[in-house]
Amino acid sequence: MKTFIPVFAILLMVVGCTPEDKSDLATLNKTKERLKEEYSVLADSIAMIEEEIMLLDTANKSPMVSLHRVSTSTFDNYFWLQGNVETDYNAMVYPEMNGRIRAIRVEEGQRVSKGQTLMELDTDVIQKNLAEVETQYALAVDVFNRQKNLWDQKIGSEVQFLEAKTRKEGLEGTMATLKAQMNMGVVRAPFAGLVDDIIPKIGEMASPMMPVARVVNLEQMYIVADVPENYFGKINSGDLVEVDVANKDTVKAAISRVGNYIKPENRTFEIRVNVDAKTKGLIPNQVASMRVNDFHADSAVVLPASLISQDARGMSFVYVVQPVGEEYKAEKTFVEPGLTYNGRTMILSGLKGDEEIVHKGVRRVINGGLVRVQ
């Protein structure tokens, strides 16, 4: 009966200390914190009394429980990221000159090689100019050859020879320029890949300011993601990640690069994950979910998170049992939980890894009491 006296006294003190002036916010906050501390003391006192009652009550039967064998195993912790699928081979193709589209040599979805012709522009005017220059060049070559023969025989003037030579070389330069312009009238694939889009139609005008096609190579893709700065130093190049592909498949890939710069606008750093060329289901600019491993332990004490209880003070504990005759004695053992992932918690201290603890029926167990095993 003496045990109830201090508890009743504390309860009277709590009721008597309730502030009358509820308009004073600071006073209310201080009172709340004090009451929380007093509640914690009361909860501990009540728990102790309940344990004493159950220990002294001979009519109370030992509760029936099930046990869990503690063991050590590997432990991994992961966090999730969302990244963007990118490729360096995703190009909008522009013509190098203005002109009307005369022919389109490929279809959308067609695989092309590097340098393959995609479309041709109308270059009739350039061709006519080239034909005219070629005629002039043929005459200039004949005149140059005649002047050279005469000059080799010391006949004629040096000026006539140099004029013929300059005329021939000038026409050669003009022809080279016109042929380059003719070549600019052909739009070619910048690299091997797939023609994803053809924008204009035959007969429309093309301009260096407007794209005419898109070529994509899906064999060399990677994922770029921003990682919160608190993970810096926990992940490194070469670490494996799991990538969810099209929300149905999961593939493993390796981090190829870890950024060394924290972006001030969002306090993140960038990582790059190379994706195997055989991976299907990823396309440029797609959002990809990745599971990144930031902690690994080869041997750790691991418990299902549901087996860890907390007292009124927020302290984590389990009941470790030892055989006593046909029953078991339960001892309240405080533990220090670490990381938790996928329902499994790593125990930093309090357990060695060879104990048996109460699994089901833990609410009926008291510290130092006996239990029966199902």
> What pattern of helices and strands is seen along the backbone?
HHEEEEEEEHHEEEEEEEEEEEEEEEE
CATH homologous group name of the largest domain: RNA polymerase II/Efflux pump adaptor protein, barrel-sandwich hybrid domain
Which geometry do the CA atoms define?
Answer: rod-shaped
Q: Major sheet: size, sense and barrel closure?
A: 6 strands, antiparallel, barrel
Oligomer: single chain
Q: On the 0-100 scale, what is the average pLDDT?
A: 85
Task: Please list the strands of the largest sheet in the order they lie side by side.
Answer: 3-12-15-14-13-16
Give structural notes.
Helix 1 (4-16) runs antiparallel to helix 2 and helix 3 (124-152) runs antiparallel to helix 4. The protein is rod-shaped, with a radius of gyration of 42 Å. It folds into three domains: 1-60; 79-89 and 217-296, Efflux pump adaptor protein, beta barrel domain (Elongation Factor Tu (Ef-tu), domain 3, Beta Barrel); 96-212, Beta Barrel (OB fold (Dihydrolipoamide Acetyltransferase, E2P)). It has helices at residues 4-16, 25-56, 124-152, 158-184, and strands at 64-65, 67-69, 71-87, 90-93, 99-104, 111-112, 117-121, 186-188, 193-198, 205-206, 213-216, 221-228, 240-245, 249-258, 268-274, 287-304, 309-310, 316-324, 327-334, 336-341, 344-349, 356-358, 370-373. Mean pLDDT is 85; it is low at 1-12 and 18-22. Strands 3-12-15-14-13-16 form a six-stranded antiparallel β-barrel. The protein has a five-stranded mixed β-sheet with strand order 1-23-19-18-17, with no helix packed on it. With 374 residues, it is an alpha+beta fold.
